[in-house]
Amino acid sequence: MVNTTAAAQGGALRLASLNHISVVCRSLESSLAFYCDVLGFFPIRRPGSFDFDGAWLFNFGIGVHLLQAEDPESMPPKKTEIDPKDNHISFTCESLEVVQRRLKEMGIQYVQRRVEEGGIHVDQLFFHDPDGFMIEVCTCDNLPVVPLVPAPACKRAAAASKQQFTVPAVAVAVNAVAVASLHAGLACHSKMGRFDQVSTRFVDASLPVISCI
Question: Could you give the residue numbers annotated as active site?
Fold first, then answer.
């Protein structure tokens, strides 16, 4: 049933922030390695009541929820061509050169693009996760956030307006910080405790719960 309450009362849904993205994967193990070792996410506690395989990861202010496909063979064929116009999640970084060098060292295929707008350059790197979902790392924070219509409910646009765009925006697709930690070689083990690769959750019940906000 479609909820039309927001439309009927006028105005958009009163959202707060992006909490997480969810990715269905052929191999939970391969996806864990990619999102931890390549992108720098770390595993957090996942509800034990779930009766399906998966893992919750967190970093840069957002969560990534990995879901093991029940029938991997029935999933659509993995995309081989990297198309920058395809669905993707985007991260900003401290140094695109460092990211590009690490991608080369790890043998990850990528494509590079540059956007020019009013004398401002935005450089982009696009590559796939193990299931063909596209990741972008960019310098999109070079571009200011310029609202096209009055948007009082948009906290980010309002803040940018008050500062007269002297502070650059964060990411185009995700409010995330640097993926420059990529070169640190983060492993799928948090300093907070031991991570059980089988159950994909922490085994130390005394650990604090990290909220995906």
Answer: 136
